[in-house]
Amino acid sequence: MLFDTHAHYDDEQFEPDRDALLSALPDNGISLVVNAASNLQSSVTGLKIAEAYPFVYAAVGVHPHDAKTMDDGTVSQLEKLLRHPKAVAVGEIGLDYHYDLSPRDIQQKRFREQLDLAASVRLPVIIHEREAPQDVLNILSEFPYVRGVFHCFSGSWETAKILLDRGWYLSFTGVITFKNARRSHEVIQKMPRDRILIETDCPYLAPVPMRGRRNSSLYLRYTAEKLAEILEVTFDEAAALTMNNGKRFFGITKNS
To answer: Computed from CA positions of residues 92, 165, 255, 241, in that sequence, does the dihedral angle turn out positive or negative?
Structure first.
């Protein structure tokens, strides 16, 4: 059984068949899912989905793309949502300098606020970072007691080592099945095995051979198969490894 540690089932792409798809996951090898939020509304929706399915949990937070939508009352609203028993992380939060959909100074301000929130509620964070590695690392250094995971990690071994030395986890998507993913393979081979998570980031980043389609947790097995190949272990060993790592990271003690 597999743990999809980062999905977006609140996304409108799942409107036509969300219930049928989620209901089918346990019978198709998916034991646990964490739905990651993008903004305040998706945080609310993610928790509603988690309430409806015993194997789904939720992260609450505002993505850097939506940082400009936050006001001075947003953090207190997020804090209330994080009291929900199925809220297991703050995220996804971070910096995105590729699209710059929110001004960089606003991204940084709201990132710091949510890291401070995570510290106060004692939950891990899920980090989104794109073309902003040094600024993310610098800001994280201001919050030494916050721990988390870099989702969809595709950075260098040098960056990975800094994070791993600080006690962080790294999560990998279907991107590791792509032909140009050698750098990620190197990181996976070098890093401690007890810090590896896998995810779909669905509906995005479908793995080979489903690349180009709407992604879902049903395709996580392709990422797990590639991980097993990289680590030179069996599929079952890779599944058990990432399941145990995910449950430890999110503090989940039951299988569903």
So the answer is: positive
How far apart CA 207 and CA 44 sit, in angstroms, is 28
Residue type (1 letter), 209: P
Tokens standing for 241? 């490894």
What 3-state DSSP class applies to 125? strand
- CA 20 – CA 239 distance, rounded (Å): 24
Look-up: residue for tokens 């710091």?
112
pLDDT tens per residue, range 15-34: 999 999 999 999 999 999 99
User: Residue 8 is encoded by which pair of tokens?
Assistant: 């977006």
Task: Quick: pLDDT tens for 106-121.
Answer: 999 999 999 999 999 9
> Scanning the structure block, which residue is given the tokens 């080592």?
161
Q: Residue 12 to residues 32, 46, 103, 253: CA-CA distances in angstroms?
A: 21, 12, 25, 30
Q: What are the backbone dihedrals phi and psi of residue 59, each rounded to the nearest 5 degrees, phi first?
A: -105, 150
Whole-angstrom distance between the N-terminal and C-terminal Cα of the chain? 11
